[in-house]
Write a structure and sequence with these properties.
The protein is mainly beta. The chain has a domain of about 140 residues: Porin. Helix content is about 10%, strand content about 60%. The chain is built from one helix and nine strands, in the order αβββββββββ. Strands 1-2-3-4-5-6-7-8 form an eight-stranded antiparallel beta barrel. Strand 1 and strand 2 form a beta hairpin. The chain is elongated. It starts with a helix and ends with a strand.
Amino acid sequence: MTMNKPIMLLAAILLTAGAATSQVLINPQIGITYQNLTDPAEFYDYKAATGFQAGADLRFGDRFFFQPGAFFGRNVTVVSVDNGETAVVEDGLVRTNLKFRAQAGYKIIDNYQFDLRVMLGPSYDVLLSVDNKDDKIEWNKGDFNGGSWGMDAGIGFDMGYFTVSPTVSFGLSRVFDDDVIELKDIDSKYLTYGLTLGWNFGNDD
């Protein structure tokens, strides 16, 4: 049931955009992520570390365009605990997720050799697994919400067939599950920076 909402949202946008225009580009991409958490609880500290992502966007339109997509990612945040009484405990928290996003965009610069695009739209992350590198902080998948909404923004640089895209995703949903008593008062959300390299192919006439 968790994945129904993002899949329906993605399908609706694909159908609408496909009916509206014959200009379609497929943009497979691979890149890195830096995912942090906001609002740490007392004694806790979060620090983003390098993860990776791979997926693809579809681009419908020309100057104005719709850009739905899906990405698989492994995101890493270093979590440390220091209560001032014992040694600092530090662990790498690794989360595997499937991100669906639906963005609208505009080409600020549009020519054959170089395009500059801006994009903005909602996203939904489905949590697939949670791992701890050193098993020092015992958080697992059951401590987290199974899905989370976000707002994604990005810039796209198209140079011929190649693309470079820095992005940022602002989490709108709480990270931790409300039913976990020890974590229900921690209002942390995801904050994710990304950078992808990709390849454009398709009909852009």
